Amino acid sequence: MATGRTHRPATRSRGIPEATVARLPLYLRALTALSERSVPTVSSEELATAAGVNSAKLRKDFSYLGSYGTRGVGYDVEYLVYQISRELGLTQDWPVVIVGIGNLGAALANYGGFASRGFRVAALIDADPAMAGKPVAGLPVRHTDELESIITDNGVSIGVIATPAGAAQQVCDRLVAAGVTSILNFAPTVLSVPEGVDVRKVDLSIELQILAFHEQRKAGEETTSAQEPAAAAQPRSGAAVRTPAGGRAAGKGPDGDVPAVMPA
Amino acid sequence: MATGRTHRPATRSRGIPEATVARLPLYLRALTALSERSVPTVSSEELATAAGVNSAKLRKDFSYLGSYGTRGVGYDVEYLVYQISRELGLTQDWPVVIVGIGNLGAALANYGGFASRGFRVAALIDADPAMAGKPVAGLPVRHTDELESIITDNGVSIGVIATPAGAAQQVCDRLVAAGVTSILNFAPTVLSVPEGVDVRKVDLSIELQILAFHEQRKAGEETTSAQEPAAAAQPRSGAAVRTPAGGRAAGKGPDGDVPAVMPA
DNA sequence: TAGATTGTTAATCGATTAACAATC
DNA sequence: TAGATTGTTAATCGATTAACAATC
User: Fold this and answer.
1) Does residue B240 lie in a domain region?
2) pLDDT (tens digit, 0 to 9) for every residue of chain B, 264 residues total?
3) Residue B232 domain-assigned?
C-alpha cells in the first residue's frame, strides 16, 4: 500500500485544516442557540466568545469556508448555520449503529443531540442474546448476528463502538468489512483499521489522566519551583511515592501538605 | 488579572508539551498490557506500534521525561510504567465526584478504568430528590445540597459533569467555588471558569460531526475533484441538498450512487 | 567488535495570533 | 462620511518527522 504521501496529494480538494474542522461544530452550536433566540446577525467577536475561542481564530476559520460575512456588520446567523451544516455534511442524513448496549451504549442511545443534527440511530446491537428484542431508547436491541445485514440494509457508514475493550477490535473488523468507514470508539483500545477508515476515540480515563497531570502541577507550583534537582536520577525501586491523598488547595495558596514528589 | 503572559513564565517548570502529555496515557496503557504479560523490555518501535503512534514521536516524547531507555536494548517496562505514572500524577490518589447520575453518569460510575488508575469515585451527586440514597455502582446517590460538603470533606479536586446542558454551568460554578480545580465536562456546553481551573470536554455530537465531515469528503472524492466551481456563490435559500441517505461505499471504489453535493 | 536502538538535531509542517487594509 | 468589522497577511509558536551520532 505504501505509506507514501509525499507532498500531500492534491486530493485534499478545498483543504480545510483539521483544527478548523474540529471547531466548526462549536460554532454551529453557538449559532444554533442564536438562531433559536432569533438573533439575525452576529460579529466575530460575539460568536467567538460564545464558542469559547478568540475572534482572530474564528475569522481565519471562516475564511476557509468562503466570505460569508459582511464587513462592518458581521455574519448572518441563518446563512452561516446553513453553510457550516453543509460543510460538515449535516444537510444529509447519517444513519449510525451503536454496538454494545451496556450502560454507556444505552446512554448514547438516549442522547438527544444525536438525532437533532443529521444523525439517526439506525440500530442498537449487542452480543448478549438476552438483550435481543429489549427496547432501549425506543428501539429493540438487535443481536450481533444481524450486524452485517443491518449495515447493508440501512447504508450505514458510521459506527459507534461501546463494547468492552476486549471485543472492540473484532466488532471494528466486522463493521469495516460490512462497509462502515467511520468509527467512533468508546472502548479503551487502539483500533487498527485499513487505510481510508477514520477512527475517533473518546476515552474517559485518558481525559482524567491529563487532568491529573495538570492538577499535580498546580499543587507543585504552590511551593514554587526549586524542589527537585534534575529529574533524571530516580530510584529504580521505590514503591510509588504517595501524598496523603488529595492535598487539595481550596483556591490557590499553599495549604500545608504539598510535596508531591520528594527527592530520594 | 491581566491575560498577560508575555514570554511564557518560567513557571512552567520542566515544560512537557501538551501534545506529549496527551499521549502519555496511551503509552501507559500499552506498557501496562506488556507488564501484565511479563514482558521485561520493549523497543520504541514495538511500543509505538502498540500505542498507535510513530517511533520518532515516542522517543521525542520520552526525551522530555528524561533518559529512561538503554541504547541497543530498549526500555524497561516496569520502570517506564512507574516513571510515566509518576509524571502523570497517578502515584497519588485522586478522589472525584460525578454530578448528574442519568444514563451517562451511571455509565461513568460503573466504568472500571476509573478505579484502576489512581482515581476513586468519592461520590455520585444528583439534583433529583427521588434519586437520593439509591445505589448506583455500589454507591448511594447524594443530593446536590450536599455538593459543597462532599467536596470539602473528601478533598476532591476533580469533578465530572454529566448533567443536562442547562444545568452544567451552575454545577460547574458550585464545584469551583467549593475548591474543584479540574473539570471533565460531558455536557454539550462551553463552560466558563476562572483562571487556574482546567476544563476538558467530551462531546459525542462534536465527534460525530467531525466524522461526518470526513465521510462526506470520501463520498465526494470517489468521483474525483472538479465537481464544484468556486464554493462561494451558493444559494442563500435552497432547502438542504440531500443525497439518497448514506450513499455508502462498501470498500473504496465508486459504487454508483455517489454525488453527495451537486452543483445548484 | 558488530549490531541494535536510543536520544537529539534540524528541517518542515501546521496552527495561532496580532495587526491592519479593505470595505460595508 | 465616519464607524465598525471582516478577511488576510505575516510573524510566531508548537508539533511532527527523518536522519543519524552516541552508546549500550
Assistant:
1) no
2) 333 333 333 233 458 999 999 999 999 999 999 999 999 999 999 999 999 999 999 999 999 999 899 999 999 999 999 999 999 999 999 999 999 999 999 999 998 777 667 899 999 999 999 999 999 999 999 999 999 999 999 999 999 999 999 999 999 999 999 999 999 999 999 999 999 999 999 999 999 999 999 999 987 766 543 333 333 333 333 223 323 233 332 222 222 222 222 222
3) no
Domain that holds residue A27: 18-87
> Same structural domain for residues B139 and B61?
no
Whether residue A102 is found in the same domain as residue A162 = yes
**Nearest chain B Cα distance for residue A44, angstroms:** 17
Number of domains in chain A: 2
CB-defined contacts A:B, below 8 A: 289
Q: Looking up cell 462502515, which residue turns up?
A: A180
Alpha-carbon span A79 to B117, nearest angstrom: 47
What does the alpha-carbon distance between residue B58 and residue B47 come to, in Å, rounded to a whole number?
8
pTM: 0.82
CA at B177, C1' at C15: how many angstroms apart? 34
Strand partners of residue B161: B99, B185
In a domain, B238, yes or no: no
Strands A94-99 and A158-161: parallel
Q: Which residues of B touch A203 (CB under 8 A)?
A: 25
* Most B CBs within 10 Å, among A206, A218, A228, to test the B interface: A206
Q: How far is the CA of B56 from the C1' of D18 (A)?
A: 8
